[in-house]
Design goal:
This is SMI1/KNR4 family protein. InterPro entries: Knr4/Smi1-like_dom, Knr4/Smi1-like_sf. The protein has 347 residues and is α+β, with helices and mostly antiparallel strands. It folds into two domains: 2-162; 178-346, SMI1/KNR4-like, CATH 3.40.1580. 46% of the residues lie in helices and 9% in strands. Strand 5 (291-297) and strand 6 (300-305) form a beta hairpin.
């Protein structure tokens, strides 16, 4: 019965001309049959990638094929797919997954080929970096589709090839403050709660070549730049020094536009467009001079006041909507620690 059902799905996939219906058939094929008949499902998907009539779906299926493949049995398919412009991007990972280090030479050749599209060349270098733990992607966007031509570190890749493709050391996780493992104060406990929530997100998605969603130790240079601009409330300054957000971005029901929590390295520049003109660097009229923007959600600023303190040293957080003609700030949370806990719940 299962063979008959699989054969029927095979025929329907190849006969279907409606993209939405094809998507549902493909999902049914994978959900019902991939676990027990993985090889048969792979053969169907690869056959469609070669000859299917819905051209855009031939490329879309490649991610499913890469996910399902195990071992070197289908290496020839990925070698063929690398030569197909519409399939080559995903075929890079398929060849690495199926042949390992034997994929290095053809992928270096792909990266070096001026006849290949920029995004495929970038993908080859990115995937080689991840697989070999070499720093060809350090500091570059996690998505190689966003790389520019001048960011292709081809010379480094070619040197690596000449050296015999040695494994690299990979990337170290960002340095964090010891109190995140032994929190005592209210601030430390709030930061630890936020860090634990961010760690769950990092388990789902993280690229240490461009780490995101970390609370890290701030550099002395960044803190000196901050101190040269403001005398920050102590509790917020300590947060930046011990738990500086590194590309912390959360979204969801609490922050439907997404909220970006600033770190020490970006706090000064983050004032541009709010209190400081981004090009002329003069103060912008109409901005309350004692407010420092510490986060934004779709351009709406969240701020602390330089001269407001509560008895325990904490401080309220204010929020305003942008694009209304004038800034009208309302208190968002009673204190900064409550704001951190709100962010943690949104992760």
């Amino acid at each position: 019965m299962a063979v008959t059902a699989l054969a029927a799905l095979h025929r329907k996939l190849f006969d279907e001309t409606d993209g939405s219906k094809f998507a549902r058939l493909k999902e049914r094929l994978i959900k019902k049959h991939a676990a027990d008949e993985r090889l048969a499902v792979l053969e169907i998907l690869m056959a469609y990638a070669r000859d299917g009539q819905l051209l855009h779906w031939r490329s879309f299926l490649m991610s499913d094929i890469v996910h399902l493949v195990e071992g070197s049995q289908h290496a020839a398919f990925f070698t063929w797919a690398l030569e197909q412009p519409a399939l080559a991007y995903c075929a890079v990972d398929g060849l690495l997954k199926s042949t390992g280090v034997d994929a290095y030479a053809p992928l270096v050749a792909l990266a070096a080929s001026s006849a290949t599209s920029l995004e495929v060349r970038a993908k080859a270098i990115k995937s080689l970096a991840v697989f070999s733990r070499q720093p060809f992607d350090q500091g570059l966007p996690a998505d190689p589709g966003h790389w520019k031509a001048e960011q292709l570190r081809l010379s480094a890749v070619l040197v690596w090839q000449a050296d015999g493709y040695p494994d690299g050391a990979g990337y170290k996780a960002p340095a964090t403050h010891y109190s995140l493992t032994q929190p005592l104060s209210r601030l430390e406990k709030a930061a630890t709660f936020l860090e634990r929530q961010l760690a769950l997100r990092r388990q789902r998605e993280q690229d240490l070549a461009q780490p995101s969603n970390w609370l890290t130790l701030a550099s002395a240079e960044d803190m000196a730049a901050i101190d040269a601009h403001w005398v920050l409330p102590e509790i917020y300054r300590r947060f930046l020094e011990w738990y500086s957000p590194l590309r912390v971005h959360v979204d969801g029901k609490r922050f439907p536009q997404g909220l970006h929590l600033y770190g020490a390295a970006e706090l000064v520049k983050a004032q541009h467009g709010y209190s400081v003109h981004p090009e002329r660097h003069h103060a912008i009229a109409g901005w309350p001079p004692k407010l420092v923007v510490i986060a934004d959600a779709g351009g709406d600023p969240y701020c602390v006041h330089l001269e407001e303190r509560s008895i325990d040293g904490d401080l309220p957080v204010y929020r305003a909507s942008h694009g209304t003609g004038e800034w009208r700030f309302e208190q968002h949370t009673d204190d900064f620690i409550d704001f951190l806990q709100e962010i943690a719940l949104a992760v």
